[in-house]
Amino acid sequence: MEMSKKYQLAFIVGGSSGIGLAIAKQLAENGTQLCLFARNQETLAQAKLKITASSKNACDIFSVDASQYEDLKLCFENAIRLHGVPDLLINCAGRAIPDYFLNISVSQMQQTFQVNFQTIWNACHIMIPHLKTNGATILNTSSIGGFIGVFGFTDYSAAKYAIIGFSEALSQEMEQYNIKIQLLCPPDTHTPGFENENKSKPIETQRISAAAKIMKPEAVAAECIKKLGTKQFMIIPSFDGKLSWWMKRYFPFLVDRIIRAAIKKA
Prior knowledge:
Elements: E1 9-13, H1 18-29, E2 33-38, H2 41-54, E3 59-63, H3 69-83, E4 88-91, H4 106-131, E5 137-141, H5 154-174, E6 180-184, H6 192-197, H7 203-209, H8 217-227, E7 234-235, H9 239-250, H10 252-265
Parallel strand pairs: 1-2, 1-4, 2-3, 4-5, 5-6, 6-7
Helix pairs in contact: 1-2, 1-8, 3-4, 4-5, 7-10, 9-10
């Protein structure tokens, strides 16, 4: 997939699997060098093999828990020493464990915010001082569940809503530094994380999502790659997703009615 803007070096947090890996592979095919950051060293090594098998561009990997600020800071500084300052930062770490609200512990809620929101806050807070001089792009990943709250996703939707508000506010502040903030809001996507979600989804949640089309991570990545560096703030990869955003914006009562009807059928 051809990019609208060429990037020399990308740091991708959560780039070892799912949408993050799909974006990494397509960036590499377009000539971008990569540094991938994730917790699991084995998964990172497998991701590197997949990327280098289809592209000759350099790909380095760094094992780190991005929700831990000081650990991520040291890791980023090491990557900058080795490869230089990136012109693209992608925040793609995330996870969801859907369940009924009263079954979600305080610990799970805190971990959901750490993985989905705090990783983005940390990465932006650490990297922006380095990015002020090169007109970089930052892509944060939210979800359709970041603008439509869904039964069974109380902690996840809260974290993903936070990412949208954070990114909107950050975009206003970063304009003076010529740093572009963009936001990816994918629908249900066939990733390892999505397979884990299905293990704990309440029946009502299954009913709500039954009619939604599941995208492949490669398709999400292709749409994202096309829009990187453009004036478009929110990137919604599917027609159904765009329709959901439009309906939520202009006819929120209809969205609520549709969701509640699906819950009653369950």
